[in-house]
Amino acid sequence: MDPGILCFHHCEHKVFCTIIPENCPVCQQKLDRYDYNLLPFRVPYPFVKASQHPRSIVMKPTHGDFLNDYYNSKDLHIGVTNSQGYVVEFSEEGIRAVDPVSKKWSECETSLDWDQCLLLEQFDELWNEIWDGVLLKMSLSPLWEAERYNEERHNCFTFVLAFLRALDCGELSERAQDPKLFCKQYVVPRTSAAGKYISLYRQLKRQSYFIQKQ
Fold first, then answer.
1. Can you tell me which residues the record assigns to a coiled coil (predicted)?
2. Do 19 and 79 form a contact (C-beta atoms < 8 A)?
């Protein structure tokens, strides 16, 4: 899903594009490898596929995806991946990815919705047993049944913070005691960086180049 945004420096400008042109769009000089002050590089893609990041805290827009649908005013949805990369999320439908009968993990149909998300934090595989144990126990609790969901007071964010507190993993669990502090340290830096990439992507959907004076 990476659109492959490229950047090169020329004639005291930064040029962003998806295909390196034959001529500089600023000075019209023909480009070859000897013209560049800095060789072209690919702008780092800030999003990940949740299933490829087990034992993680992940975030995505409530509706749609980041590149095409996200604006600062829109709500975000947060979830947890287990050791297999299944996303466990709390919504108006209750907890997903756990079969209440067998009390085992089951990959749900919404997994594809998490193919473009932000990675807030990921734990080492040494945490597998503890992580899954705490997550499964919480997921089966009546506290997270569908009828308990409240968009303002008992939501996906509430679930993730409760999980992190129960995990008792040091600094991250301490930050989870205070929702505002958690957002300031883990959410805002990621969404701010992603916002710059999103803005650049949308500029390049409208035009072939985006140019910045150095």
1. none
2. no
CA gap 119, 57 in Å, rounded: 6
* Tens of pLDDT, residues 140-189: 999 999 999 999 999 999 999 999 999 999 899 999 999 999 999 999 99
- By C-alpha distance, which of 61, 47, 57, 190 is closest to 135? 57
Tokens of 179: 């929702």
143-166 exposure pattern, b = at least 16 Cβ within 10 A, e = fewer = ebeeeebeeeeebbbbbbbbbbbe
- Strand boundaries in the chain, DSSP class E: 6-10, 13-17, 38-42, 56-61, 76-81, 87-88, 90-91, 94-95, 98-99, 104-105, 118-122, 210-213
Partners of 56 in the β-ladder: 122
End-to-end CA distance of the chain: 29
Average pLDDT for 36-58: 90
Can you count the helices (H) and strands (E) in the chain? 6, 12
> What's the predicted TM-score (pTM) here?
0.89
**Sign of the dihedral through C-alpha 155, 126, 190, 20:** negative
Task: Please answer whether residues 170 and 199 qualify as being in contact, where contact means their C-beta atoms are separated by less than 8 angstroms.
Answer: no
